[in-house]
Each structure stands twice: as C-alpha cells, then as structure tokens.
Write a structure and sequence with these properties.
BT1/2/3/4/5; SKP1/BTB/POZ_sf; CREB-binding Protein, Chain A; 309 residues; ubl conjugation pathway; BTB domain-containing protein; Potassium Channel Kv1.1, Chain A; two-stranded parallel sheet; mainly alpha; 16 helices; single chain; TAZ_dom_sf
C-alpha cells in the first residue's frame, strides 16, 4: 500500500484487505491479474490518495483489526491518534465501503462536536452519506443555534454557500414543527384519555352509584370506588348541576352539558334504558339534526371529539 506522498510503503496481505473492503477486493483482483499476466512476479500495488501518510497507515492497521475495530483496543497507544484522524478515516471508510469503520468514525466525530465544528461536520456527513453523524449535527444545531450563528464556519457558509444555509434552516424549521405537532398530539391524547375515564365514571355513577350520587330511586354505594379521586370530582359537578339556577351561563354547568352530550353520542344502550340523565333527549335531538342535513351531520360526527375537546 503506497501513500499519496509516495514516501511510505506499507506491506499488507491482499486477502486481509480484500475481506475488509469490497472496493479494495476489486482493485486487488485487477492488480494481481496484471502481475500474473506479466509473468515477472512481484507484488500488487494499491495507492491510497487524498490523506496523510499517518492516516493511510492507521487505515490499514484498522482493516487488520477487523470489525472489532478501535473500540475493542482502547488501551492501544494508537487509539488517540485514530480519534484525531476520524474525519479523514470517515472519508476512507466511505470511499472503500467499510461499514463498521464508518459507524465508529461517526461516533468518534459526534462525541466531540461543538458549535464551532458542527458546520464542517454536517458538510462532511452529507458528502460521506453518514446519517448518524448528520442526525447528531442537526440536534446540536437545534440546541445551540445561537452559538453556531456566531462562529466563523457559519459566516463562511452563509457567504459562500447560501443554498446549504437555506437547507439547514429548512431542516431546523421542519424539526421544530414536528416537535410542536408531537407536543400538541400528546396534549390531545391526554385529554382523550381523561374524557374516556370521565365517560366510564359517569356510567358507573348513573348505574351503580358512588358515595354521594347514585341512580334515581337507589341509594349510592357507601364504599368508594377504585377511581374515587376522579369520581368524587364528577359527583360534585353533578350535584352542582342539579342545584344551579343559571345553567345557561355557568361554566361548570356548561362542562356538565358537554359531558352528557358526549355520553349520548357514544351510548349504545337502547332508548329509554340508559340511566344517564338527558341521554335519550340528546339522542333524539341528534337524530333530528341528521334528518335535516345528513352531510353536515356526518362532518359533525367525524369531528365530535375534537369539538368537545
């Protein structure tokens, strides 16, 4: 193996290099074929260009280490040098298709990322098709963008490659929108769970009764139910609703109206057999609306949960 300067030659076994890299395997097959055809004997020569002599030697040494890679030889004196050359080693691992070395280089570069180096690392990740490194760079950019904007690397990018700058800003915007959407979905899911629990508890109160409120003509149960913390809040709301004189304007009564309406929309008990108050009346009112405008009612039915939330 001859380095780009030509001053250093590294003896290596063709079988080891070929087994570590399919690109080197193809190159060696052609070179060895030429050696055999010449009839003069000798060794095949592989040139590693574009990197320093030390990096080329480290690359060959790592190919001999195999898929165990540098991480299995942390105590080696060459470990620090390998990490210092990880950017150039990533280029070689990409060019010669050595996946395990490529993964290690991405991890080594990503562990040393700073606001001052993240722009160069991001460009390197794009050139070498390194998704793991690209992801870590975007995370640091999103977290420390104010600091990155003040670096010389970002100013150079802005002045010389506006398309790359625009692409980075677009990705940061998309990531921020996804984060906001995810938070909104989580908040909605939490509300849906609370509404589902409220429906179960309302059915429990109106069917079995619990401590303070029970079905008509039946004494409420004396022992609290397992979900008593939520159940008591709904019982207090029902008691307020039954005594309030201004239900049309009272916020608490409006909340109770919504819960009763939601129960009626989900109730599958035949008319007249449900113990929940106003269930039958809400069902009749909904049927009248559907009869008047089927298309509008269908849209309202699809958005019922969102409307009530």
């Amino acid at each position: 193996v001859v380095t780009s300067s030509g001053r250093r030659k590294i003896a290596a076994h063709s079988s080891v290099l070929a087994s570590a890299s399919p690109v080197l395997e193809t190159i060696l097959e052609r070179r060895l074929q030429r050696v055999r055809e010449s009839g003069k004997g000798g060794r095949a020569v592989v040139r590693i260009r574009g990197v320093t002599d030390d990096v080329a030697a480290a690359f060959v040494r790592l190919l001999y280490a195999g898929s165990r890679g540098p991480s299995s030889s942390v105590r080696s004196r060459n470990q620090t040098n390998n990490e210092n050359h990880s950017e150039q080693l990533l280029v070689l691992a990409h060019a010669y298709r050595v996946p395990w070395l490529k993964r290690w280089c991405q991890e080594a570069i990503g562990s040393r990322l700073t606001p001052g180096t993240v722009v160069d690392a991001l460009q390197l990740a794009d050139l070498c098709d390194a998704p793991q490194l690209h992801l870590r760079c975007m995370r640091l950019l999103a977290k420390e963008f104010r600091a990155v904007e003040r670096t010389e690397a970002w100013r150079f990018l802005r002045d010389n490659d506006p398309w790359q700058e625009l692409d980075v800003l677009r990705r940061l915007h998309d990531a921020d929108m996804r984060r906001r959407k995810w938070r909104r979905k989580r908040a909605e899911q939490k509300v849906y769970v609370e509404l589902s629990d409220a429906m179960d508890i309302l059915r429990h109160i109106c069917t079995e009764g619990c401590t303070e409120v029970g079905p008509v003509g039946q004494a409420p149960a004396k022992s609290p139910c397992p979900a008593y913390a939520t159940c008591r809040g709904l019982q207090l709301l029902i008691r307020h609703f039954s005594r309030c004189k201004s239900r049309a304007t009272c916020p608490r009564c409006q909340r109770m109206w919504q819960l009763l309406r939601l129960h009626a929309a989900l109730c599958r008990v035949p008319d007249g057999h449900c113990n929940t108050p106003l269930c039958t009346q809400f069902k009749l009112k909904e049927q009248q609306k559907e009869a008047m405008s089927a298309s509008v009612a269908a849209k309202a039915g699809d958005g019922r949960w969102g409307l009530l939330v």
